Amino acid sequence: MFSRMTNSRLIVITGPSGVGKGCLVSELLRRNNHLWLSVSATTRAPRRGEVDGEHYFFLDREKFSELVKADGFLEWAEFAGNCYGTPREQVNQKLRSGVSVLLEIELEGARQVRKNFPDAFKIFISPPSFEELERRIRGRATDSEEAIQRRLFRAKDEINAQNEFDSVIVNQDLSKAVLELEQKIGLSNSTLND
Ligand code: 5GP
Q1: What is the span of the domain harbouring residue 106?
Q2: What is the pTM of this model?
Q3: Which helix (H) or strand (E) holds 126?
Q4: Ligand 1 pocket, 79 CB below 6 A?
Q5: Is residue 34 part of a domain?
Q6: Which of 87, 97, 110, 125 matches a 20 to 30 Å C-alpha distance to 159?
Q7: Domain tally, the chain
Q8: 191 assigned to some structural domain
Q9: CATH code, domain with 154
Q10: How far is the CA of 74 from the centre of ligand 1 (A)?
């Protein structure tokens, strides 16, 4: 989505759990402070170190459903047993004020954005291999075996859908992937040493 008045853009970043989207996005924001990352709502319990309102808005299912009914989400989906959604109003406000917005969301949400905002730029972050993805998910050591299995199962579907995206970046090396991401988004006057 380009805001016609301001040239701000809606940029969607999707990829399987464990692929390193979080690190990539943090690095992208550190290097480009005019971009804004939307804070999602979720019914998932906070992981150690996660702060309400900063990493996510942690909601119970009842509150989440109320927001769905009130059309408060730009998109939302269930993922591995929990609900995740992008609060609509804050994204609209940023776009209206000329700020480009990043959404870091899973496949079903990305599909909803594609339908409702055809001008959004959608990027898929892919792992070097499925084995490497499994190693990264297990290495995180924060999720139960059941949650890990659900995430691996879902990862296969996501990887199979990568052709639906405007661009695919393989996250083998973080700094190279960030540079590639900047080039794809059109922020390409940067170098690896920035
Ligand atoms: P995690 O539980 O690991 O933080 O996130 C699980 C998945 O949910 C990740 O793929 C993440 O990108 C996705 N996700 C986070 N926020 C949202 C959101 O607002 N909407 C959708 N559709 N997916 C989200």
Answers
A1: 10-186
A2: 0.91
A3: strand 121-126
A4: yes
A5: yes
A6: 87
A7: 1
A8: no
A9: 3.40.50.300
A10: 14
Nearest residue by C-alpha to atom 2 in ligand 1 = 44
pLDDT along the chain (194 residues), means of 10: 68 94 94 95 95 97 98 96 96 95 97 95 96 88 84 93 97 95 80 51
The C-alpha atoms of residue 17 and residue 99 are separated, in whole angstroms, by: 27
| Burial degree of 81 (CB within 10 A; 0-12, 13-18, 19+) | exposed
Ligand 1 touching residue 85 (CB < 6 A): yes
Whether 79 maps to a domain, the answer reads: yes
Residue 31 lies in a domain: yes
pLDDT score for 69: 98
* pLDDT for the residue 190: 53
Give residue 193 CA to ligand 1 midpoint distance, Å. 30
Give, in order, the Cα–Cα distances in Å from 125 to each of 80, 122, 178: 19, 10, 11
Q: In what order do the strands lie in the sheet with 121-126?
A: 35-37, 100-104, 10-14, 121-126, 167-170
